[in-house]
Amino acid sequence: MSAIGKMQLVVPETAIDINGHVNNVQYVHWMQEAAIAHSAELGWPTERFLALGRTWIIRCHTIEYLHSAHAGETIHVLTWVADFHKIRSLRKYKFLRPQDGVVLATASTLFIFCDLHSGKPVAIPQEVQAAYTVIGAADEP
Prior knowledge:
Blueprint: E1 5-10, H1 24-41, H2 46-51, E2 54-65, E3 74-84, E4 88-97, E5 102-115, H3 126-129
Antiparallel strand pairs: 1-3, 2-5, 3-4, 4-5
């Protein structure tokens, strides 16, 4: 189990837009996949949150696109939790092309912890927070 999750993928043709590179919406999809996989790796798969009657709702995404990615390229998506507050958590991401070490994009998602049925924010339980190591800005990959 790692404080920093790592998802590897090969860009499919279906991710390419009319400009010949990965469509910006695809990055959001990969962010979601990486966050879910990392949480599961740390012992908190979606089913465990659902069993508690809790879920994460996205308040906002921020993405800065730095370089293009193309079909057939391997990409690493790194993700980590940057902070926890009473009802919210900030998760960050870095998209890397390992062949040349180029950072393709950086991103973050602000999550709100909510009751699954009412949709209202609730405090993040200590048992959830304990599963994640918060990575501060000085220790980011």
